[in-house]
Amino acid sequence: MEKFTEPCMVDLPRIYDPRGNLTFIQNGDAVLPFTIERVYWTYDVPAGEERGGHSHHEGREMLVALGGSFCVNLFDGQRWQTFTLNRPYKALYIPPGYWRTLDNFSSGSVCMVLTSTHYTEDDYVRDFDEFLKLSRRDEA
Ligand code: TYD
After folding, report:
1. Which residue owns the Cα nearest ligand 1 atom 3?
2. Residue 3: its pLDDT value, please?
3. CB 97, CB 55: distance < 8 Å
4. Is residue 1 scored above 50 in pLDDT?
5. Does the annotation count 54 as an active-site position?
């Protein structure tokens, strides 16, 4: 598989330290296939809640479970894949064109998202039927 053409887990650098470990990421690193334009994070997600439920036309994203754990379910129009994020030194890369939902949030979990775009609603597909139409068109 060519790197970063599909969703994949990425190992981030880890600096082990008896005082506590440290992980970092910066623009230009080989583990980051885009330039970071925006960072956001979700927290205080109630038990049983689901987030996400959209795809992006252009935006590329890296998700990291800074704390706790959650599942990321990805759909490319044909098959679903589920990734469990539960380590602050592992990132999930999501290319554009994948429908994603996030669920199974543990108590106190924090999902940090690094993105390649500024926030614009124009980059979102929030209707699943529209997503299906777009993914079928891409296959044609
Ligand atoms: P939303 O995209 O619905 O969250 P989810 O990731 O669960 O699908 O975002 C919730 C609200 O926050 C929505 O009104 C858009 C707003 N928002 C911003 O203003 N800036 C941002 O960077 C993001 C990610 C969301």
Report:
1. 52
2. 79
3. yes
4. no
5. yes
Long-range contacts of 52-55 (CB under 8 A, 24+ apart): 52/100, 52/101, 52/102, 53/99, 53/100, 53/101, 53/126, 53/128, 54/99, 54/100, 54/124, 54/125, 54/126, 55/96, 55/97, 55/98, 55/99, 55/100, 55/124, 55/125, 55/131
Residue bearing tokens 């440290």: 22
Report the separation in Å between the CA atom of 11 and the middle of ligand 1, taken as the mean of its atom positions.
26
What CA–CA distance (Å, rounded) separates 16 from 20?
7
The DSSP bridge partners found for residue 46 are none
Q: Which residues line ligand 1 (CB under 6 A)?
A: 38, 40, 51-54, 119
Candidates 54, 56, 57, 118; catalytic one: 54
Give me the percent of the chain exceeding a pLDDT of 90: 94
27-79, pLDDT tens digit by residue? 999 999 999 999 999 999 999 999 999 999 999 999 999 999 999 999 999 99
| Mutational pocket test of ligand 1: of 37, 39, 40, the residue with most ligand atoms within 8 Å of the beta carbon | 40
Residue positions counted in the chain: 140
Radius of gyration of the chain (CA): 15
